[in-house]
Amino acid sequence: MEFEDIYVQIVSSKKRPVFLSRLCLITFFFSGSMTLFSFGGLFLSGWMANYINFFVKGFYNVGSNILIVFFLSVFVLFGSSLVGALLMFRLKRSGYWIYLSANAIMILLSFFVVLNFINILFIVVSVVFIFLYRIPYKHMKSKA
Questions:
Q1: Whether the Cβ atoms of residue 20 and residue 139 lie closer than 8 Å to each other
Q2: Helix (H) and strand (E) counts in the chain
Q3: How far apart are CA 87 and CA 81, in angstroms?
Q4: Which among 29, 33, 68, 75 has most CB atoms closer than 10 A?
Q5: Rounded to a whole number, what is the distance in angstroms from the first to the last CA of the chain?
Q6: What DSSP element (H or E) covers 36?
Q7: Are 42 and 75 in contact (CB under 8 A)?
Q8: Which DSSP state fits 15?
Q9: DSSP of 50-114, one letter per residue?
């Protein structure tokens, strides 16, 4: 291929919609920060278990193993959400399905904890983002 042919191919490739770019940036910030938070929680779970047992009445014998499982699952789910957003940013349709499955699991698990304002807000925002990501789905490619 000639240089001009490659240049024309690059310039004429699909452009990412601005709406999708903004959604992905918001998801990068939130899912990325939660992934980093849960990664740090993996290493601090022993200290947190001791802190909870010492200062909070009613939470006796909270082992660090429970917190390790919690932070590991949060790390995997938010990491999957982040990977899905990265793939959608690159206009890959598979990213939507990864994002959808990770957030659907997180929404279902949210019903098993105390439903306070933060959890309800997380559920509502997650459902809204799933539907908002469906709008630019037609601009994404199904193959690499």
A1: yes
A2: 5, 0
A3: 10
A4: 75
A5: 20
A6: helix 18-55
A7: yes
A8: P
A9: HHHHHHSTT-TT--HHHHHHHHHHHHHHHHHHHHHHHHHHTTBHHHHHHHHHHHHHHHHHHTTS-
Count other C-beta atoms under 10 Å from residue 82's C-beta.
Answer: 21
Q: What is the pLDDT along the chain (144 residues), one digit of tens a residue?
A: 566 565 555 544 568 889 999 999 999 999 999 999 888 877 777 666 666 665 566 555 556 677 778 888 999 999 999 999 999 999 999 999 999 999 999 999 988 877 889 889 999 999 999 999 999 988 888 765
- Residues 97, 83 contacting (CB under 8 angstroms): no
Dig out the tokens for 143 from the structure.
């193959």
Find tokens 């042919």 and name the residue: 5
**Two structure tokens written together for 59:** 């939470």
Domain boundary assignment for the chain: 18-139
Token code pair at residue 111: 């019903």
Q: Which two tokens stand for residue 29?
A: 């910030």
Task: In whole angstroms, give the CA distance from residue 74 to residue 67.
Answer: 10
Tokens 């789910």, residue?
77
